[in-house]
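Colleagues,

For the teaching module next term, I've prepared a clean inverse folding example: a structure given as tokens, and then the sequence designed for it. I'd like students to try predicting residues themselves before seeing the answer, so please don't circulate the second half yet.
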């Protein structure tokens, strides 16, 4: 029997959480299925080289490559075309709530089972009102487990409509590099201490938090401070206090090289917590309170039970003082030892088994979507974005889009971040699929320039 094809779709999100979870599940599926990742996250550029599986980038609504009304139709058509091209048996969506364009797949005569990967620990924001209606379109809901689930008092906590698994993590002790190899991979000195920092920048308050965190590291002898992007503000000014040795690295997935670090300072997102703790890296967590994820609840749990240190995100002085504690080797060892008590984050394996079972079932009749309900959700999404528009939204030019099936990380990064519309084709795309994709693009952008 040929391996079934399973599509793992993700939204763009605030960080890499959605994409990291999809990547972890895809790795578990590789031996028994043909996983395909399709994502609106720019980080997708890093995935093909690492996973060795086929991927496709879809521009999110926030890219403004087309009108909001057309985007949901474009998304639906892109996903349906990919299902038809690959003969997929199941499609999953990892995002806060499934877009109307995703739910519209259920109205297709060729509908396949649709699974919502719905992370827990929601804040009580406006998105909570969409849960019940959107769940009614879904064939199954899977909640990737969270170490901090005991502190989940949000709108999904007691719904009882999801399969709850162990936490999902790209970190696996059996495949992670040891300290020496991890440091070689990152170009770090073998004998100097190193601290990983994964904090956002951009707005003035986030920039101030970055500087406050870096200030807590001043005085740590011979320290390497490792970041994944340049610590600068929007005008290119450095956020780094004097006296620190900064190194910017690009490596995917960082979970594979966590042994390189003596400590970490991260936002308290799902991805960062479920990589740092299983890897036993002593950490300070500084929550990002934007979005749906209740990072403060996760940070409090980590701190209350001794797995990590929580810094008060509203106090720059507390951020600096809590980070400074990481200079104490006794404390770092205590945190690392405590993390060793945590259960394995084997949720990706559990989810892969659920998806495989669904893909191999015969005679299953998936739910059919309600066309009126999808239209209502589409209108609601447009109204929501009018009230809360994306920041730094850039309207793309009207030139003919660039087409590519590249899997090279550097080339993909350039195309995704570029100033021209980009249509990504799955590697090995058939001639028929290419024609269908051109028709979809013309509907979205209007008649293409030649």
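(Answer key — instructors only)
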């Amino acid at each position: 029997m040929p391996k079934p094809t399973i599509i793992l779709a993700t939204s763009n999100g605030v960080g890499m959480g959605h994409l990291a979870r999809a990547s972890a599940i895809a790795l578990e599926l590789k031996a028994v299925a043909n996983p395909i990742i399709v994502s609106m996250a720019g980080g997708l550029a890093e995935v093909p080289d690492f996973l060795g599986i086929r991927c496709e980038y879809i521009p999110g609504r926030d890219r403004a490559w087309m009108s909001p009304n057309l985007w949901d139709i474009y998304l639906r058509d892109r996903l349906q075309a990919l299902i038809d091209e690959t003969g997929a048996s199941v499609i999953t969506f990892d995002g806060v709530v499934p877009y109307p364009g995703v739910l519209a797949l259920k109205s297709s005569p060729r509908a396949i089972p649709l699974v919502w990967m719905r992370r827990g620990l929601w804040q009580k924001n406006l998105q909570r009102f969409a849960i019940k209606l959107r769940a009614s379109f879904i064939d199954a809901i899977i909640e990737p487990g969270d170490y901090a689930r005991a502190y989940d008092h949000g709108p999904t906590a007691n719904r009882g409509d999801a399969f709850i698994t162990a936490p999902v993590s790209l970190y696996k002790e059996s495949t992670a590099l040891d300290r020496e190899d991890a440091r070689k991979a990152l170009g770090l000195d073998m004998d100097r201490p190193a601290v990983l920092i994964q904090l956002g920048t951009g707005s003035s308050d986030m920039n101030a938090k970055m500087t406050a965190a870096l200030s807590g590291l001043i005085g740590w002898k011979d320290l390497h401070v490792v970041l994944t992007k340049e610590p600068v503000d929007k005008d290119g000014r450095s956020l780094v206090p004097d006296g620190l040795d900064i190194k910017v690295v690009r490596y995917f997935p960082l979970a594979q090289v966590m042994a390189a670090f003596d400590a970490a300072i991260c936002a308290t997102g799902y991805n960062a917590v479920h990589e740092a703790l299983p890897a036993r890296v002593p950490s300070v967590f500084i929550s990002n309170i934007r979005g749906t994820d209740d990072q403060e609840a996760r940070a409090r749990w980590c701190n209350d039970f001794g797995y990590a240190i929580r810094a008060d995100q509203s106090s720059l002085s507390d951020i600096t003082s809590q980070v400074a504690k990481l200079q104490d080797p006794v404390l770092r060892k205590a945190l690392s030892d405590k993390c060793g008590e945590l259960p394995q984050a084997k949720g990706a394996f559990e989810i892969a088994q659920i998806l495989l079972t669904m893909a191999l079932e015969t005679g299953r009749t998936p739910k059919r979507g309600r066309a009126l309900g999808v239209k209502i959700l589409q209108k609601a999404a447009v109204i929501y974005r009018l009230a809360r528009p994306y920041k730094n939204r850039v309207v793309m030019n009207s030139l003919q889009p660039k087409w590519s099936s590249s899997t090279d990380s550097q080339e993909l990064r350039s195309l995704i971040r570029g100033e021209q519309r980009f249509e990504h084709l799955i590697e090995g795309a058939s001639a028929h699929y290419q024609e269908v994709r051109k028709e979809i693009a013309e509907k979205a952008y209007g008649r293409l320039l030649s």
